[in-house]
Amino acid sequence: MSEEHPKTVEELMSIQGVESIDLPDGDVGEGLRFKTNRGDFNAILHRARDADQAVIWVCGARGGFGGPGPGTYARMSERFTGEGITSLRLDYRYANDVFECALDLLAGVAYLKGTGHKPVVVVGHSFGGAVVIAAGANSDHIKGVVALSPQTYGAGMAGQISPRKLLVVHGKADTRLAFACGQQIYDMANEPKQLVLYEGAEHRLEECRDDLEELLGNWIPEALSMGISLG
User: Fold this and answer.
1) How far apart are CA 134 and CA 143, in angstroms?
2) Fewest C-beta in 10 Å: which of 70, 85, 133, 205?
3) Quick check: 226 and 143 in contact, CB under 8 A?
4) Left (φ > 0), alpha (ψ -120 to 50) or beta: where does 154 sit?
């Protein structure tokens, strides 16, 4: 029996079409539905005019668009639009499945690449921290990875993020995923990497929201402007 070659990401997950949809109530941006060979998922695009830089934001095990904060993803997306950086907030087809969710994220990366964007930064919260690590280790079109309050399950490829930049953020008062999870991921990773621990901050990082958004507002544009070789 002949042995099958492993499939490429493009063979596993391909975008067959993108259509406009209504936004969730009270949200801003442009609603999109991605139709793929593995099923459909939704996203919210914050389009910066004439931008070639972009960031993708993913949430935790329940999916959706909320993220930490609450509202940090939406606020940062609107802020970056004004700074010439496009944002894509992405929901999952099958929340809580690291492999399938990483494929969703990689499809979002492929979409931005196809619309003329340079390698992107990916940001994930909680379960999404493992998703961005898995995707980041498997794409030459990702140049920075941000894991917020990340879980360790599914994050075993942290050592393969390099030479991309990695930022790990955790609250020291996190009762859902102890900050030791973030420390462990940081320890597994190679340079360039950064670990930021916030005193008194719980899982959603609400207590340090302003400091977190200032950190992301500086780190992400800096990562996007860096030149790295993934060859």
Assistant:
1) 13
2) 70
3) yes
4) left
